[in-house]
Structure formats: C-alpha cells, structure tokens
TrEMBL record:
Residue span, Enoyl reductase (ER) domain: 9-288
Organism: Hymenobacter lapidiphilus
SMART domains (UniProt xref): PKS_ER
Pfam family, one: ADH_zinc_N
Residues in coiled coil: none
Gene3D superfamilies: Medium-chain alcohol dehydrogenases, catalytic domain, NAD(P)-binding Rossmann-like Domain
The protein, known as: Zinc-binding dehydrogenase
GO molecular function: oxidoreductase activity
Taxonomy, superkingdom: Bacteria
UniProt cross-references to InterPro entries, sorted A to Z: ADH-like_C, Chloroplast_QOR, ER, GroES-like_sf, NAD(P)-bd_dom_sf
Length: 290
C-alpha cells in the first residue's frame, strides 16, 4: 500500500512511499481509508518524528473484514494517534464508530480529534446552560466545533480569534460575542476553553469567575496562570472515542453540527494542505480524499 511517511531528506518532511499493509491485532479492525482529515497539531510535529513514521489521527473508510460486531464493508470513522496517512490502517474497535447513511465519509473524518476534543472539554465544564463560555482560538478546527457545541448546550458563547478576518462565520455558528482580544473589561466568564495557545492564557484566566473552570487544550505548560486547582484542567483527549463519535455523528446527521470543511482535495495534495495549515490559512477543516 501507499502511505505518507516522515522523510527528513525532502523539503516538506514527508513523502509518499510503498509500505506493508498493517495486520490488525486483537480488538482491532482493518480499515480501507477513503478520507483523511488533517489537524494542525499532527502536521506541526511531523519533523520531530523518526524517518519512516506513518502519522495521522482522523480517518473514515470501510472495514475490509469483519471485526467485532461489525461486518465487512461497514462504513466507519476511525481514530488513532498514528497510522492514518495511509491507504489502510489498523484501529482499535473502541476508537471507531459506524457512519450513518446520511453522513458522507469525508464529513465524518473531521470528527475524532477536533470535535472529540471540543465535546470532551465542554463536558468537563459541567452544565453550561445559561452560562458564559469563552472559547479562545475559535477560528481553528477545535474552536469552531466548540462554538457550536457550547451553543447547542445553551451557553452564551464568547468567541475569540486572532484577527477580524478569522472571526468570519463565528456568529453564524452560534457565538453571541466575537472578539479579537481579551480586554480586562470583558464581562467575567464561567468557563474557558483555551484553543488558541499560550498568548491569551493569562488574559483568559483573568476573566474567569471564582467558581469557573479553565480547560487548557493547546499550548504549553511553561507559564501557567495562578488559579486554584478547582479552576484549572490540563486537557488530554485520550482514547475510547466510540461513544463520543456516535453522539457527534447523530448531531451531524441531524444537521445540528457543521463540520466546516473549507479545503478538500485528492490526497496527493497532502504537502499543500500541510503548508496551508501551518500558515493558518485554513479556517476550518481540511480533508484529503483517497
């Protein structure tokens, strides 16, 4: 099979190569990949990986053989921390979900990391109905899902993006307030979903109510704000996403969640997609079709 593997000898740091088809282990399924959704985080880190590594988190495709309760040919969305940038991948059964007939595979491929992160981070905040939720970095993949999911949960959504151009469409997704900075006189918030990196971390923390929670999704832990332990959560997506993916797929099928695909090409255009993501020229999701 073909796969995009890390290669420090080429300018993009990645090359299309012939590699063996993976053999699924116990509790895994073999998926023929039909669509890949790229995330800035995985693209950013590819040069730090050993040569020959197959990265790739988010995919959708069809099962090549029966696995668990799923027959061969089942359409699935599949997540894993590696192996997705390939024609075939082996994935854990607890990290895949059946894609409803109403949802196209490319659309489904956008969900695991970006929507899954937004979903789990919002769940960590508890009941946000009627509460003010600040989402920094709201123009990115995670942020755009977070805006929609927070609004569906009944929150008053304050969405922050770095420039006025990047704020485009956030009100349509459900944001009641859209800002490019976090002035100190902004009304206090009950929760912060930090999706924008370290630059606004301290400003966001300063807006948090004493009973609020800051969920630190992106950025480093180099300079953490001074918050009580009950006010701060360093988020990690983890695994076992099946139940979350099933819920998210229902929302997509019902038309309540827009996956915000703004760039979609054949997977041969992988290097172009990576460059655009790193330059923050894609406000939404990028999908590659196989």
């Amino acid at each position: 099979m073909q796969a995009w593997v890390t290669d420090p000898q080429v300018s993009q740091g990645i090359a299309l190569r012939e590699v063996p088809i993976p053999v699924p282990g116990r509790g895994q399924a073999l998926v023929a990949v039909r669509a890949i959704s790229l995330n800035r985080g995985e693209v950013r880190d590819l040069r730090q990986q050993p040569a020959g590594t197959i990265l790739g988190w988010d995919t959708a495709g069809v099962l090549l053989q029966p696995a668990g309760e799923f027959p061969a040919g089942t359409r699935v969305v599949a997540f894993g921390w590696r192996g997705g940038w390939a024609q075939y991948r082996a994935v854990n059964l607890n990290d895949l979900a059946v894609v409803p007939a109403e949802v196209e595979l490319g659309v489904a491929s956008t969900l695991p990391v970006a929507a899954g992160t937004a979903w789990r981070a919002l769940q960590a905040c508890g009941n946000v109905h009627g509460r003010r939720v600040l989402i920094t970095g709201a123009a990115g993949g995670v942020g755009r899902f977070a805006v929609q999911l927070a609004r569906l949960a009944g929150a008053h959504v304050v969405a922050q993006a770095s420039t006025s151009a990047r704020t485009a469409g956030l009100e349509t997704l459900g944001a009641q307030e859209v800002v490019t900075t976090l002035p100190a006189n902004l009304a206090p918030v009950d929760a912060v979903l930090e999706c924008g990196g370290d630059d606004l971390l301290h400003a966001a923390a300063g807006l948090l109510k004493p009973t609020g929670l800051l969920v630190h999704i992106s950025g480093s832990q180099a300079q953490l704000p001074t918050l009580a332990p009950s006010q701060y959560l360093r988020f990690g997506l983890g695994t076992h996403l099946r139940a979350d993916l099933e819920r998210l797929l229902v929302l997509v099928a019902q038309g309540q969640l827009d996956t915000q695909i703004v760039w979609r090409r054949d997977w041969q255009r992988f290097p172009t997609a990576a460059e655009l993501l790193l330059a923050r020229h894609i406000n939404g999701k990028a999908v590659l079709d196989l």
